[in-house]
Predict the structure.
Amino acid sequence: MRILLAEDNPSLARATAAILAHGGFEVDTVNDGGEALGALQKGDYDAAVLDIMMPVADGLEVLRRVRAEGNPVPILLLTAKTQVEDKVEGLDDGANDYLTKPFDARELIARVKAIARPRSGAASGVSCGDLTLRSQTL
């Protein structure tokens, strides 16, 4: 599974990327919200892990823009913001999950796997540009 990690703290980005790689993920790392938005618009990711407090555009702004564009990529907000209001705002804005720092490596891996797993009952199909092919059950 290919994961986008957006974290502006270089040492934390390296450590988190190593944890995710150890969990079996292929990880692309960016350092600010602008890079994260560009990567999500261009890339094909199974999930994204976004810090909230980043330069250029914060993680919530990236989340809102990605959702406004109709991008359904599963997003985990990984942040030092621990207040219930912050969690509710992130989840209400379209995040699939919210994990606060500091975090346990096993929990991060489990949460990313959970948001990235295919949803039962989801529409099955493949899209390319304006063309969508859907499988039908008879």
Notes: The first helix runs from residue 10 to 22. The chain has a mean pLDDT of 89.
